[in-house]
Amino acid sequence: MAELAEQITTDIGQALQADELDLPTLPEVALRIRDEAQSKSVSAASLAEVISKDVGLAAQLVKTANSPMFMAARAIDDLAQAIGRLGVDQAANIVTGLAMKQMFQATSELIDNKMREIWKTSTDAAAWSAILAKWFTDLRPDQATLAGLTHAIGVLPILSWAEERDQLLDDAKMLDRVIESIHPTIGTMILTRWDFSEEIICVPEGYMSPLRQTTEVDYVDLVSAALLLLNRTGPETPLCDEPWADAPVFSKIGVDLSMNAYQLEKLTEQVEEARSSFG
Fold first, then answer.
1. Which of 101, 148, 217, 230 has a beta carbon 3.0–4.6 Å from 129's, enabling a disulfide?
2. What's the CA gap between 155 and 187, in Å, rounded?
3. How far is CA 220 from CA 61, 144, 205, 245, 258, in A?
4. How many Å apart are CA 158 and CA 138, to the nearest integer?
5. What pTM, to 2 d.p., does this model score?
6. Residue 200 belongs to a domain with what CATH number?
7. The predicted structure's pLDDT at residue 211
8. CA 161 from centroid of its chain's CA atoms
9. Residue 79: pLDDT above 60?
10. How far apart are CA 120 and CA 177, in angstroms?
11. Residue 165: inside a domain, yes or no?
12. pLDDT (tens digit, 9 = 90+) per residue, 121-152?
């Protein structure tokens, strides 16, 4: 099995180098929103007009703007007001992330289940990354959200490739090995093609690297910490008692894993609020 997994990884890598592997493109609504956000004449009203064409995304953005993550003291129900509260760049980033859910669809049951699994992990990572950014750093929660949502985006073309090949569809463990081996490289290529910022592009290949060393906290650190926190055994277990509690990324971010029960409850409540934005 190991030899076949290595061969499949090699095949995908060669297809990638030859530009023969179909890389996903951002949904059309996300592209329109990004174009408007980058326009010199953009305003909350003009961006609201573009976002409002997708009723579901508009409702989710208003819900996000009302969440504790953005310290919403007063509830609002107007899309332009939501964008005004968040700011154009932040609103555009959030909606871009929300629109990505459309990409996680497949025809075969195995691949569809795998995509749902990846999307759930990505939204969980996005929620934790955003709240960690807000609580412990000066980094932007919206960028942290994007980092979490896209950290495993390189899995998508691998799953699409696997749909056409029975040897991968019939062996979930082999598929996992192939994904683990090559998805960071593919993810970097996708985010580069999407013209994301460098601080997001470096996440897929950085979040699992044990040798990575930087002096400043960045979005790679947030995603790394978020993914560790996703493996918690339960809310009743103190964070400092978890087996990964000595991971250096927590001290780098400034997370005090010995926080009291009240602080932990507030932290997890805000993570749940952030997570609910993704439906």
1. 148
2. 7
3. 25, 9, 9, 18, 23
4. 35
5. 0.86
6. 1.10.3210.10
7. 66
8. 22
9. yes
10. 19
11. yes
12. 999 999 999 999 999 999 998 899 999 999 99
| Spatial separation of the C-alpha atoms in residues 163 and 173, rounded to whole Å | 15
Rounded to 5 degrees, what angle do the CA atoms 67, 57, 53 make?
140
**46 touches 24 (CB < 8 A):** no
Query: What six digits make up the tokens of 122?
Result: 């990505």
> Per the domain annotation, does 20 fall within a domain?
yes
Q: Which two tokens stand for residue 109?
A: 């049951």
Tell me whether residue 89 is in a domain. no
d(CA 254, CA 118): 28
d(CA 153, CA 148): 10
Three-class SS of the chain: CHHHHHHHHHHHHHHHHCCCCCCCCCCHHHHHHHHHHCCCCCCHHHHHHHHCCCHHHHHHHHHHHCCHHHCCCCCCCCHHHHHHHHCHHHHHHHHHHHHHHHHCCCCCHHHHHHHHHHHHHHHHHHHHHHHHHHHHCCCCHHHHHHHHHHCCCCHHHHHHHHCCCHHHHCCHHHHHHHHHHHHHHHHHHHHHHCCCCHHHHCHHHHCCCCCCCCCCCCHHHHHHHHHHHCCCCCCCCCHHHCCCCCCHHHHHHCCCCCCCHHHHHHHHHHHHHHHHCCC
Is 265 among the domain residues?
A: no
Domains contained in the chain, number: 1
User: And the tokens for 85?
Assistant: 């509260």
